Amino acid sequence: MTDQSHKLPKKVLKAFDNAVAGRIAILIPQIVLWEISLAAKAGKILLTISLEEYVRKNFFAQAISILTLETEDVLRSHNLGFTNDPFDTLIVSIALRMKALLITGDSIIHKHEPCEIFWN
Question: Domain residues for 59?
Answer without folding.
Answer: 8-112
